Amino acid sequence: MISIAIAVKNAHDRNTISALLSEQDDFLVTDVGKDGYDALLSATTRQPDIIIMDFKMEDASSQELAPVIKRRSPSTRLIIICSPEDHYTMDNALKTGISGCLLKQDISGQLVSSVRSVFYGGLYMSRPMETQTTTNKKEASQVHNLIPRRLFTNTELQILYGIICGYSDKEIAKSLNMSSGSLRNCINHAKKKTGLHNRTQISAYALLAGIINVEKIRDLLKLIDT
Fold it and tell me: Taking Cα atoms as reference points, which of 80, 101, 107 lies closest to residue 20?
């Protein structure tokens, strides 16, 4: 069971987040608050697995609060809800101990995936909005592309390359000197970390997020053709 506390100012957002989390059988919402004090209190008394909080709160910023929460509850992972303007400062926020950044407009579609990803040791960041300036998009892309790479182990990445290139499980397992059962376990672990349901979705996510190097895929496909 993944225990989760919420500290979000807007009542509608709090209710939406709570409802989405409650739909998952393995999620347990332990606290629902509205500010930094509530987040810190939850970390001190409950020590939940995840705290979801606003990037900017009336009594503290998430970057100020994150190190304090981590000292009180080292195992608690933090996901912040931010605006598109805040999104482009997330490289600094991550250094304070924050593990996930979710754009407000992405709550409905990406909240569950972000929680699972962060809980299983990954870092999660919503994609930047396409309406931002070219400079900001370039900076955000650099940050975004660096972050998800930590989500998958090297073995999991090699498996994804094999899947995308069309190799069978038996062929991938043999190339990595592992059993087919171990390969399936790796894929299942990747499903848990991303919140996705199958290997096709995971592969698509890895490509879209820039985790998989497209040039390497092209080189591998050329080898197959020859």
Answer: 107
Distance CA 137, CA 147 (A): 15
Structural domains of the chain, count: 2
Both tokens assigned to 152: 């998958």
Residue corresponding to tokens 């979710």: 102
In terms of phi and psi (left: phi > 0; alpha: psi -120 to 50; beta: otherwise), the region of 121 is left
CATH number reported for the structural domain that contains residue 171 in this entry: 1.10.10.10
Could you give the percent of the chain with pLDDT greater than 90? Answer: 35
β-strand 77-82 against 124-125: which pairing, if any? unpaired
Give yes or no: residues 146 and 160 share one domain: no
Report which secondary-structure segment, H or E, holds 5.
strand 2-7
- Based on the domain organization, do 19 and 32 belong to the same domain? yes
In the structure encoding, which two tokens stand for residue 13, read together? Answer: 């957002």
For 25, the domain range is 2-150
- Give CA–CA dist 20/26, Å, rounded: 12
In angstroms, the CA 22 to CA 7 distance is 16
Q: Helix H segments across 7-51?
A: 11-22, 36-45
| Confidence band, pLDDT 50/70/90 cuts, at residue 40 | very high
What average pLDDT does range 40-54 have in this prediction? 95
Amino acid 208: pLDDT: 67
What are the start-end ranges of the E strands in 44-175?
50-54, 77-82, 98-103, 124-125
